[in-house]
């Protein structure tokens, strides 16, 4: 269930990201006034009264004029803000201020809403919520580990009785990896961070699909697990390599994620309908909450105060859902452990 809902939300987030990134032009960047501002900025390095030091450097980092000690600071290079990025941002801010004074509504620029940078972070709310989700995933994983190893009885070989322990540990690592790169990508999205974000999400969704099949169909035999996992791991690995080293095909990636996500939804929905598991209500709770959260992706609206938009609220919705997810995992571990101990008596 954890994967089911989480993967559904992640793949829909992906769909939005892919559609946004694939847009070549939006109303904002097609605006003649915005275009003129960009042209002037790229020539002068200034927008209004604000000038950018790094616009006085060539592509290899050498100053066009002036002494060597005026070279661009290291932190500027690290965050990848270049002259073009700053020109686009500040021209957008200036144009949106003019639009606001005239009573107009915000429009998208290069496929994205006009966000306000906070300490050089592009989408501060999405970054903050991603970080909180990362923390909750870590908390859920630690509580799961403590429950199995210190509160439940162990086998004679000191291993937990819960048959899916190792799989959930892998899931936790992949989930934390995804939320980390999600925060990084929303801090500053360029090709490398996008690839890392998309790769992390595909890896999580792919492994979630495997875990869905193994848990829903109660596959415990190692040979059977390998037979299920091997082709799916090969497919996901090939897809990630394709995205990173051949073509970052947003449309194809969206389709792949959608297929795996919908399949998980169907499997978990059937499982929750037929099982007598005492925590099955949490599966339904997570699915309902996840579906409502998806509406935030469908109802796309401009960021409030340049900070909080529908996508950021989607990130916020993942915070309580992450708690419900790991709550189900702990209940499942307890249910399976007690069931096995009863059979041994």
UniProtKB/TrEMBL annotation:
Residues 1-30 form the signal peptide. GO terms for biological process: GPI anchor biosynthetic process. Its main location: Golgi. InterPro entries: Per1-like (IPR007217). The chain crosses the membrane at residues 125-149, 161-184, 196-214, 226-246, 252-271, 283-299, 311-329. GO terms for cellular component: endoplasmic reticulum membrane; Golgi membrane. It is found in: Golgi apparatus membrane. It is a multi-pass membrane protein. It holds the Pfam family Per1. One of its GO terms (molecular function) is hydrolase activity, acting on ester bonds. Keywords: Golgi apparatus, GPI-anchor biosynthesis, Membrane, Signal, Transmembrane, Transmembrane helix. The keyword DNA-binding does not apply. Involved in the lipid remodeling steps of GPI-anchor maturation. Belongs to the PGAP3 family. This is Post-GPI attachment to proteins factor 3. It comes from Hibiscus trionum. The lineage of its organism: Eukaryota, Viridiplantae, Streptophyta, Embryophyta, Tracheophyta.
């Amino acid at each position: 269930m954890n994967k089911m809902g989480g993967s559904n939300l992640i793949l829909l987030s992906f769909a939005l990201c892919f559609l946004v990134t694939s847009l070549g032009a939006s109303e904002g960047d097609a605006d003649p006034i915005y275009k003129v501002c960009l042209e002037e900025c790229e020539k002068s390095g200034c927008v209004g009264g604000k000038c950018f030091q790094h616009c006085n450097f060539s592509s290899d980092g050498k100053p066009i004029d002036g002494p060597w000690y005026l070279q661009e600071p290291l932190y500027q290079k690290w965050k990848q803000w270049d002259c073009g990025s700053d020109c686009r941002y500040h021209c957008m801010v200036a144009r949106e201020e003019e639009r606001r004074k005239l009573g107009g509504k915000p429009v998208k620029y290069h496929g994205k809403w006009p966000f306000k940078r906070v300490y050089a972070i592009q989408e501060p709310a999405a970054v903050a919520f991603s970080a909180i989700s990362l923390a909750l995933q870590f908390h859920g994983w630690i509580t799961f580990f403590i429950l199995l190893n210190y509160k439940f009885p162990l086998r004679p070989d000191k291993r937990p009785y819960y048959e899916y322990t190792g799989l959930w540990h892998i899931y936790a690592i992949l989930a934390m990896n995804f939320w980390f790169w999600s925060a990084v990508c929303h801090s500053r999205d360029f090709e490398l961070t996008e690839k890392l974000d998309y790769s992390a999400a595909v890896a999580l969704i792919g492994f979630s699909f495997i875990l869905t099949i193994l848990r829903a169909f109660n596959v415990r035999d190692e040979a059977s697990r390998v037979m299920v996992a091997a082709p799916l791991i090969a497919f996901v690995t090939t897809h990630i390599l394709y995205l990173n080293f051949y073509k970052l095909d947003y449309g194809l990636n969206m389709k792949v994620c959608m297929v795996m996500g919908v399949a998980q939804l169907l499997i978990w929905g059937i499982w929750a309908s037929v099982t007598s598991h005492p925590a099955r209500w949490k599966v339904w709770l997570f699915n309902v909450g996840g579906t409502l959260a998806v509406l935030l992706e469908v109802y796309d609206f401009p960021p409030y105060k340049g900070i909080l938009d529908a996508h950021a609220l989607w990130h916020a919705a993942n915070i309580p859902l992450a708690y419900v997810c790991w709550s189900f995992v702990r209940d499942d571990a307890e249910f399976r452990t007690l069931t096995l101990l009863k059979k041994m008596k």
